[in-house]
Amino acid sequence: MQSLIIDNFEIQNRLLIGTGKFQNKYDVRESIIQSGSQVVTVAVRRIDLERHEENILEYIPDGVKLMVNTSGARNADEVIRIARLAKECGYGNWIKIEVIDDSKYLLPDNQETIRATELLVKEGFVVFPYVSADLYVARELVKVGADTVMPLGSCIGTNQGLKAEEFIQILINEIEIPIIVDAGIGCPSHAAKAMEMGADAVLVNTAIATADNAPNMAKAFSKAIEAGRLAYESGIPDSQNIASASSPLSHLLS
Amino acid sequence: MIVTDQIHRILTDSREATFEKLKKQASDVTRQYFGRTISLYAPLYLGNYCENNCVYCGFSSHHKIPRTRLNDAELHKEMNVLSKQGIQNILILTGESDRMTSVNYIKNAVTIARQYFPNVSIEIQPLLTDEYSQLIKAGVDGLAVYQETYDREIYDTVHVSGKKKDYNYRYETPERAAHAGMRSISMGILLGLAPPVEDVIALFQHLRFMEKIYPGVEYSLSFPRIVPVEDMDYQPIKVSDDLFVKIICLTRILFPRVGINLSTREQPAIRDDMLSLVTRMSAGSSTLVGGYTHIREGEPQFDIHDHRSVKEIVQLLKDKNYDPVFTEWRCLHEVSGLRV
Questions:
Q1: Which of A98, A223, B242, B264 suits a disulfide with B285, CB 3.0-4.6 Å?
Q2: What is the pLDDT of residue B340?
Q3: What is the set of domains in chain B, with CATH numbers?
Q4: How far apart (Å, rounded) are the C-alpha atoms in residues A116 and A114?
Q5: What are chain A's domains?
Q6: Are the Cβ atoms of B335 and A23 closer than 8 angstroms?
Q7: CA distances (Å), origin B121, targets A50, A166, B110, B142
Q8: Contact A202/A196 with Cβ under 8 angstroms?
Q9: Contact B37/A115, CB-based, under 8 Å?
Q10: What positions of A carry a catalytic annotation?
């Protein structure tokens, strides 16, 4: 299977894991290890910068790439501040931009995301912007130098799967930088479907974190994503309606 | 849309099966949207001066109790103790006195608090928009302001005198704060003042209204039950444990992403039972001015029932497979940023 390369980092396992909502930090670690995920995202607002017990970062295995996210930011200005804070604290330069100014649906503010992307790219960050699946937004992100586009499958935390399927497919068809489906992925089959469609990777949090057995669920996602990718690379044959009782021509004659 | 007759029916349905279904649905929703995490915060009382006469409150101006407020040295002391316990979210509280705990006094306290805590919220007298702007600039991220009751007649009866008597001024407080740019706003009712079902419905309607006009604010709801202080003549309406839990469940189902706070007013048993429904808890709380360092003698605003330390609450959460969250948000003011 092909690797995904972002910022010279080779990603063989195309499951990216979000670290919120877990019942304990040990489960975060186990989920990463069991799934073999190579990239995890941590909200800067949840990092205990001062001291204290149980810093989430201590639970991330060596060699795993940290992508901090700007969860909690309501505009581009707050994104910039969070990104700089993370950089000053030594958390690297991979950043997932989340700009949400709607606490009911948690939908991203695409315009602010584009502005923040442009500024962070100029400051040398590797930028993963989380946006609605919209072709014009994606093109704009490419133009300002984003490293990926992360369209939402459905609203964050809803486990609704690929409600935005058609529009994600358009991004996969038209956008040349990696498309990472983020948010709303509720079960491994949703993730497999995204990969079969040609997505480059999938980011999962809630469905793993809130499972009864998080590490096993992470493993299940990893397998589904691998299967989906392998199928995509193998060339999925067109489906035929062979189960239909009627002749394929009958509708032309009625 | 708030379907009031359905809410009414569910809250007054006494069948055990309905209750169980409600609890199951609410805890499933909580788990989906918040996972197994509970945020912890601690209240810090700065002063108990109050210019309102409210029949249900221990700080009310008609009580002849010693009045006090913390000075800078005492603020440092109290905050240092709390911060050493691991607390990172602090809720600063005062009585409602524009004279003794003025905006400037609170601003100074917030500036000191920001040296110890990444996240500072306030529960103080309602202010004007530009006063909230000043406090936000000083480092306040959250506001708690409760209407107490939405029943205008009862509101008028229990708030005998003082600025709080103005129902509309209080009702419009969340709007003024949101307009000033407050990140998070906690709204609520004081259970026991008025018939609870009607009050809950009115609170839900108030929240829906706020969500529509200020969608970016992070909202949470609180449902404190009146805890009578000694020598209080006021007899609150009794709100049973079952009704209390039902209210919390219904809130969760109707507002899946809204935070629900649970204070140390409640008994430890109820608090432990409700871990699967709430998202924020106070821990190691004192409702005395200077209560963490015992620097002042005085009367509390209300008596707390859960006296467990922060450490004990953390252990309890871990034992029950919940991840205690100390850091929810950090004020970004000192981080360099550019206006974009």
A1: B264
A2: 42
A3: 4-323 (3.20.20.70)
A4: 5
A5: 4-253 (3.20.20.70)
A6: no
A7: 19, 43, 9, 4
A8: no
A9: no
A10: 96
For the ranges A104-118, B66-80, B268-282, B285-299, the lowest mean pLDDT is seen at: B285-299
From chain B, which residues contact A within 8 Å (Cβ)? Answer: 31-37, 86, 88, 118, 183, 211, 215-219, 257-258, 318, 321-323, 325-330, 332, 335-340
Question: Residue type for A170, please?
Answer: I
In one-letter notation, the amino acid at residue B90 is: I
B216–A102: do the CB atoms touch at under 8 Å?
Answer: yes
Q: How far is B208 from chain A (nearest CA, A)?
A: 10
Mean pLDDT of B229-240: 80
Size of interface A-B (CB pairs under 8 A): 100
The pLDDT-based confidence of B186 (bands split at 50, 70, 90) is very high
Residue with tokens 């709100």: B239
A80:B330 CB<8 A: no
Instruction: List pLDDT tens digits, range B84-105.
Output: 888 889 999 999 999 999 999 9
Cα–Cα distance for residue pair B47/B127, rounded to 1 Å: 17
Query: pLDDT at position B187, please?
Result: 97
Q: ipTM of this predicted complex?
A: 0.76
For strands B218-222 and B259-262, give the pairing.
Answer: parallel
| Cβ distance of A25 and B335 shorter than 8 Å | no
Spatial neighbors of B16 by CB under 8 A, at least 6 apart, are: none
Candidates A108, A118, A109; CA nearest to A152 is: A108
Nearest in space to B225 (alpha carbons), one of B304, B142, B132, B120: B304
Instruction: Give the residue from chain B lying closest to A206, CA to CA.
Output: B32
Region class of A184: left (phi > 0), else alpha (psi between -120 and 50), else beta: left
A123's tokens: 């400051």
Name the amino acid, one letter, at B222: S
Q: What are the chain A neighbours of B31 within 8 Å (beta carbons)? A: 210
Q: For B252-300, write each residue's pLDDT tens digit.
A: 999 999 999 887 777 778 877 788 888 888 887 777 787 787 766 666 6
Give A31-48 pLDDT, tens digit per residue.
999 999 999 998 888 777
Residues in CB range of A163: below 8 A, 6 or more apart: A153, A154, A184
Q: Confirm if A83 and A117 have CB atoms less than 8 A apart.
A: no
- Kindly list the distances between the CA atom of residue A132 and the CA atoms of A110, A203, A237, B318, in Å, as whole numbers in the listed order: 7, 15, 29, 36
Which residues of chain A lie closer than 8 angstroms to B215, CB-CB?
Answer: 101-104
Q: Do A84 and B88 touch (CB under 8 A)?
A: no
Q: What is the pLDDT of residues B1-55, one digit of tens each?
A: 667 888 888 888 888 888 899 999 999 999 888 888 888 999 999 998 999 998 8
Using a CB-CB cut-off of 8 Å, the residues of chain A touching B311 are none
B273, containing H or E segment: helix B268-273
Which residues are registered as beta bridge partners of A131? A151
- Residues in chain A within 8 Å Cβ distance of B335: 81-82, 84-85
d(CA B105, CA A37): 51
Model confidence pTM above 0.90: no
